[in-house]
Amino acid sequence: MSDAELQNRQLLTHLADGQFHSGEVLGRLLGISRAAIWKRLQRLQESAGIAIERRHGKGYRIDGGLDLLDAAAIRAQLDPEALRQPLRLDLHWSTDSTNSRLVEAAQTASIHGLVCLAERQTAGRGRRGRNWFSPFGGNLYLSLGWSFNAGVSTLEGLSLAVGVALARTLEQLGIEGALLKWPNDLLIDQGKVAGILIETVGDMDSHCQVVIGVGVNVRMPAAAEAAIDQRWSDLQRHLAEPLSRNRLTALLLNQLVAMLSQFHRQGFAAFAEAWNQRDLCAGQAVVIRGLHSAIEGIACGVDQRGGLQLRTAAGIEVIRSGEVSLRMQ
Ligand code: ATP
Ligand code: BTN
């Protein structure tokens, strides 16, 4: 981490309580002048989009404070099953993409149980090279590394099972109406709240390492309006009480660990019913667009392997490749 980044981190950690802090105290903390503090905070406002209030005679504050990620707070809320796993939390202030971090690490080491989290991503990725808007401090950008020994064919449906784990996490938090859109999105009230990106590294036939990437919008800044080209939403607007990102992270890890253990034993079949109960498109007319073709039909849920069943004029067709886009008509 560069000196400037370290100083930014110190500053924001101090201001995270939402109280006023004088320029003098902050200057002393960082060993720089009051004028330098003001400049640094101005730059942070621009680069990280954090609104910092400056009041004469009182100093600076972040109205409402910040809900920063904290490894100890996350660990304290892990359940016994998750604690039995070799989970290692790796928190970043800023990184290009938490998935990229783990894909890179997997080239030379085991990433089993490694959890990479970031306050923001500068190059967050969605499927097929799309951009995942990842502003500072408000959302969840999490990647979990896991090892599988029986080749990539046993991973069929994993991305959907992750969707079930995520939906269950939100239900545990009292959020209603979270629905899954095949193959990798979670929506509430038609707005995309979360996306899942699974990447594999290693031997296709035997040992491989998987990176499970999950992005969840918790508190989106207004800037998202211009940055995301489809309907989106975030969790906070569906909750009365403020949601702690540390709690969300721990509950999601608990669910992911439980899901992975069951997935390892039984594959996607164990999650098909749970997925279908939360299917956004069930019974709806949809179109599936591939690179060169499009199929129209009525979405009829997923089969035991996670393939999307489509009722077309020619009968039931099952779409297995996730490299297509599903749109409701
Ligand atoms: P499909 O996979 O069916 O084409 P999709 O349009 O959601 O669905 P994805 O590749 O799954 O495509 O997701 C990337 C897209 O998600 C981006 O192109 C953008 O429209 C949207 N997006 C980017 N960042 C966010 C975010 N933080 N929250 C919600 N949506 C986002
Ligand atoms: C999608 O909807 O296309 C998937 C979006 C996945 C975003 C998450 S955020 C954490 C992880 N790191 C990334 O770069 N992408 C995933």
Describe this structure in words.
The protein is of the alpha+beta class and 329 residues long. It has ten helices and 14 strands. Strands 3-4-5-9-8-7-6 form a seven-stranded mixed sheet, sandwiched between helices. It has a five-stranded antiparallel sheet with strand order 13-12-11-10-14. Helix 2 crosses helix 3 (34-48) and helix 7 packs across helix 9 (245-266). The model has no long low-confidence stretch (mean pLDDT 94). Biotin binds at residues 97-99, 121, 124-127, 130, 132, 141-143, 184-185, 195-197, 213-215.
Fraction of helical residues = 25-40%
Quantity of strands, as a count? 14
* Gyration radius from CA atoms, angstroms: 21 Å
Q: Please provide the ordered H/E string of secondary-structure elements.
A: HHHEEHHEHEEHEEEEHHHEEEEE
Number of helices: 10
Unreliable segments of 5+ consecutive residues: none
- Please indicate the percent range of residues in DSSP E strands (runs of 2 or more): 25-35%
Structural class: alpha+beta
Compute the average pLDDT: 94
Bound molecules: adenosine-5'-triphosphate, biotin
| Biggest β-sheet strands, sense, barrel | 7 strands, mixed
- Strand sequence of the main sheet, in spatial order? 3-4-5-9-8-7-6
Shape: globular
| Distance N to C terminus | 48 Å
